[in-house]
Amino acid sequence: MNNLQLRYILCLLFLLTAFTLSAKRPRAYLLGGGHTNYSDRRLDRNGLRTGVYSDVHHLFGFYLNGAYSTSFADMNNVSFKPGGYGVGGGVCYELQYYYLKFQWGLGVEWQDVTNRVADTTFFDDRVVDARDYPYTLRYDFFRRRDRAWDLHAQLPLLIGAGIRGAYFLTGFKIDYRFDFGGTSVKAAGHTSGTYPQFLGQMWEMDNHGMRKNVPIERNDNALKSTWDILVSLEIGYEYGRELGVRSKYRPANGNGKKKWKERYESRLRFAAFVDYGLLNTMPKTDLTLIHIPQDYKWDFPQYQFHHVFSTTDAKNKHLHQFYAGVKLTVLFGTYFDYKCRLCGPFESERDMASPKIPKQKYRHSGTGR
Asked: Which residues, other chains included, contact 145 with Cβ-Cβ below 8 Å and sequence gap of 6+?
């Protein structure tokens, strides 16, 4: 055996060893081998890796929501408690692009909120009784609750994502409060007097106009309409179901034109959501918190009360709306994908992802031809 033959044998052994080691090492990312966008997806009824949680979807439907609601104000004499509720609903359109979701809608919201107002005490020292004795008349108002109920129009603009059934949406809701609704004030009051010639405070002297624990209730117009932008966060779970079992792919017809079969679906969503108003929605009105007419100083039915947010006490103050509750959404739609990932000409997913390997310029429709 000469040197040339020995060199050929050694070279052949080296190449066989290299190929053997390469064959033993598993090749990552082969088609269906796992760890890729498509191979990790659940198989549908036709054995294709697609479904309601992948591909491109166009969904239409409606939503209903119910929430605890309150109004936050930076006023020292106003508490956000006890609050109230908001109920609403509307229609919506959602574009799902694989894991991403984009939702637009139009709805209405009915809000009914009560705020607690601090006790109020003031005096009137220009008073005389039936015998023309001057004295100081004291007014005490307590257990005051100011309530406002009104109708809102809302335009949700949300974006989010979902993995299988879990999803979230966040964004903004453009909100407009109509002049439709009303306000009310409920409270209780005392009137009492102090005479300079007598010791102590005089109570419950009806013939002198002094009364105790008188219930008060006044109704008024709705708060002045305003615009708001609510920042919104929605987190929930959805149940998606296909409404048909037809194959997703259809061969070309006799004219050579592709007619793809859309698949129909439904979604049922349950979610928790939080909305918070970014803009100051305090009405710009100049009413008085309490007005006692001069000719009716002792006549409780003539006392005038206005909602605290519509008074001069609220001037230059801020008001923000808040909702926290649950939401039900029902959607119907269609989806389809023009590319068959399991059809020839065959490439591994590693080849598809490599920028160094030329891509095929066409895909088959799923017929194998």
From this structure: 82, 114, 115, 116, 117, 185, 186, 187
pTM for this model (two decimals): 0.75
| Chain Cα centroid distance, residue 204 | 52
**Three-class SS of residue 93?**
strand
pLDDT of amino acid 12? 59
Provide the token pair at 95. Answer: 């574009």
The encoded tokens of residue 41 equal: 């997806």
193 Cβ contact partners less than 8 Å away, ≥ 6 residues apart: 127, 129, 135, 136, 137, 138, 201, 202, 205, 208, 210
Between CA 266 and CA 244 the distance in angstroms is 11
**Residue 98 Ramachandran class (φ > 0 left, ψ -120 to 50 alpha, else beta):** left
What is the model's pLDDT at position 63? 98
**What was the pLDDT predicted at 240?**
84
67 vs 110: CA distance, rounded Å:
10
pLDDT confidence of residue 361: 45
Cβ-contact 210, 192 below 8 angstroms: yes
